[in-house]
Design goal:
Helix 4 packs across helix 5. The longest helix has 13 residues. This protein is α/β, with parallel strands linked by helices. The chain is built from five helices and eleven strands. It folds into two domains: 91 residues, Elongation Factor Tu (Ef-tu), domain 3 (Beta Barrel), CATH 2.40.30; 108 residues, Rossmann fold (3-Layer(aba) Sandwich). Helix content is 22%, strand content 38%.
């Protein structure tokens, strides 16, 4: 879809300056956890847009994106004020680093990468597959969702922003056939994650990676 106005179904807080926004899915909308959409708004006469990854398990009736709000940003204050019934202009989905029914998904997430991590783990559970998450952030969000996933049997490691990822990554990698590693985050996190995968005996080149900039 391209620049389509979609209605907000619900908005919920998922942490300090972070919300999960659920939109009504348009007919024939098809997207996978790990893909992302572009949210667009007009601010002071200028078109502003940002990309956000899907954090819901599916998009059948609604789909959810996780948004970290920058109170001083151009788009953040607008998203922070959204309520059910409001509309946003949206395009997408985009991206090729997404869940494709792999028997086991291992997700290494930095900062806003927790959005796709939650979406993929939720979908894997719904499909009867396995998942594990290593999430590194100085101010974690989606903690309720992560607790729920852990209670359902998903292995979840939440690390501080400066923590070494080696031990946690070694713990979640099984090296079994059908295991797929996903990496979501900013460039410095991607470097740390791929180093941890390599040190744990995994294949960094085989990971599905999305660089947030």
């Amino acid at each position: 879809m391209e620049d389509e106005p979609l209605s907000v179904a619900a908005v919920s807080s998922v942490g300090q300056n972070a919300v999960a926004i659920a939109f009504e899915s348009p007919p024939d909308f098809a997207a996978r956890p790990g893909q992302f959409v572009k949210l667009v708004a007009e601010v002071d006469g200028e078109r502003e847009s940002r990309f956000y990854t899907i954090s819901s398990s599916d998009v059948a009736d609604t789909f959810e994106v996780t948004v970290e709000i920058d109170p001083d940003g151009a788009l953040g204050p607008i998203l922070a004020e959204l309520d059910a019934g409001d509309t946003m202009t949206i395009s997408g989905p985009y991206g090729n680093a997404y869940y494709e029914d792999e028997p086991r998904a291992v997700i290494l997430a930095g900062g806003p990468g927790v959005g796709p991590a939650v979406g993929i783990a939720r979908r894997a559970l719904a499909d009867g597959n396995e998942a594990a998450i290593v999430y590194r952030d100085d101010d974690p969000i989606h903690e309720d969702a992560l607790d729920e996933l852990a209670a359902e049997g998903i292995t979840v490691h939440v690390l501080d922003a400066d923590d070494d990822m080696g031990e946690a990554t070694t713990d979640v990698l099984t090296h079994d056939e059908g295991e797929q590693v996903f990496v979501y985050g900013f460039a410095d996190f991607l470097d740390a994650a791929t180093t941890a995968i390599d040190a744990a005996g995994g294949d960094p080149d085989g990971a599905k990676v999305e660089n947030f900039g």
